[in-house]
Design the sequence.
């Protein structure tokens, strides 16, 4: 499922990775809907968690490079999700129906809300920094 336009941050790599995240999320969901078994659910979720880590790391690198003023609170949000995933995996080690539902709802809500809030704000900031950098580069060329 394609993420709607309102989820676009305008930063190419960020939008690309958010779409990837949603695609991986749907793989996890599909494992449940198609009753592919707990194993498929488990490793789809593990793969999503790995990609989440990779994505968070890249966003955080950009926050550091550009001295993003809201770095601390944004990183805290990221840590919160990683912790939540860990807790849910521990709480439902066998991925029974209720556990799968709980995990899916939590992930879906968190990811979408985070993109619309914190990530769009970060994206806007990255774009403005890059614009400034371009202006400086243009000036020095003349
Ligand atoms: Fe993000
Ligand atoms: Fe983020």
Sequence:
């Amino acid at each position: 499922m394609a993420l709607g336009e309102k989820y676009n941050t305008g930063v190419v790599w960020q939008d690309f990775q958010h779409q990837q995240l949603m695609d991986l999320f749907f793989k996890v969901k599909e494992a449940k809907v198609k009753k592919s078994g707990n194993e498929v659910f488990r490793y789809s979720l593990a793969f999503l968690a790995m990609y989440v880590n990779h994505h968070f790391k890249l966003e955080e690198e950009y926050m550091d490079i550009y001295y993003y003023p809201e770095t601390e609170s944004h990183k805290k949000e990221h840590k919160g999700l990683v912790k939540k995933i860990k807790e849910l995996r521990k709480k439902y080690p066998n991925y029974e129906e209720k556990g799968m539902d709980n995990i899916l709802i939590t992930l879906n809500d968190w990811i979408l809300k985070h993109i619309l809030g914190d990530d769009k704000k970060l994206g806007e900031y990255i774009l403005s920094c890059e614009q400034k950098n371009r202006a400086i580069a243009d000036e020095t060329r003349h």
Notes: The mean pLDDT is 95. The chain is about 80% helix and 0% strand. The pocket of fe (ii) ion (ligand 1) is lined by residues 18, 55, 59, 115, 119 (CB under 6 Å).
